[in-house]
Amino acid sequence: MMRDNDLMSTLKANKLMRSREEVLAFDNALTELAESTADVNLEELHLVFDDNCEHEEVMWGLVHFLESFDASQQLQALLNVVQKLAVSAPEWTEIIHYRIFNDEPTRFLYQDMLRSADLNTQQLVTKILEDIARERELINV
């Protein structure tokens, strides 16, 4: 079994999934990380997302993996890196927030945690959530 650092390196190196080999390497590393989650760095894991990934369906595995962690730990990690994530993977940042927005207990927890985040983070997350709300209104018209 690979060490967590090696697995994270494998995820980062193969996150664009430009070939079958990269897809398999990414998927295998994610599967192996899921077997032993004790030392997983959730902040680093969020930063694996990349909007240029060629196989979104495989990247969804990362979304589900992150959601398998304790919500407050996962949300705190997201808050800690959301400013970087919004630059490196704005679409995935919105997808993650859309999922938070759609789950009421998680949304309330996130709103509560957001109050203790720095002002730049609060403003960014508020904008993301407002954009999602606006998109939902357009869909429901």
Structure notes:
- There is one protein chain.
- With 141 residues, the chain is mainly alpha-helical.
- It has one domain.
- It is built from 8 helices and no strands.
- It has helices at residues 4-14, 20-35, 42-46, 56-67, 71-88, 90-101, 104-114, 119-139.
- Helix 2 (20-35) packs parallel to helix 4 and helix 5 (71-88) packs antiparallel against helix 6.
- The radius of gyration is 15 Å and the shape is globular.
- The relative contact order is 0.11.
Number of helices: 8
- How far apart, in Å, are the first and last alpha carbons? 51 Å
Shape: globular
Structural class: mainly alpha
Radius of gyration: 15 Å
- Along the chain, the helix and strand elements come as HHHHHHHH
Task: Report the sheet with the most strands, covering strand number, pairing sense and barrel closure.
Answer: none
Q: Find the count of extended strands (DSSP E, 2+ residues).
A: 0
